[in-house]
Design a protein that fits this description.
- The structure is a single chain.
- This protein has strands at residues 4-20, 24-25, 31-54, 61-62, 68-71, 74-79, 87-108.
- With 109 residues, it is mainly β.
- Strands 1, 2, 3, 4, 5, 6 and 7 form a 7-stranded antiparallel β-sheet that branches.
- It is globular.
Length: 109
Amino acid sequence: MKHFNDSHLEIKKYFEGTLETLPYEAGWADEAIFFVGVEKVNGTPVMKAQVQLSQDGIRWTDDGSEPTIIEGLGQHIIKVNPNFGNYIRLRADITGGTMFLNLHIACKG
């Protein structure tokens, strides 16, 4: 039987500039997906989001995939490439305004 976990990373807050989630230990999981809920915007913000990996939760590197661009309201997903190791986080740069976000990570394995 697989295990499943959905965790809130950021709940209903406005963000602008650089956002880095806290390290999330997911070495037990086979797959992970970030869910980015954009509930409100001020201006015309654009988010450029990148999954980052770490073996220790301290030193980070991009996972090698292309950044995900998020614009507009709604639910958006960012899939994490397989074989992501132990710790993962999401790093994002928001330009052109602010985004009111509800950010989750779902893992299963």
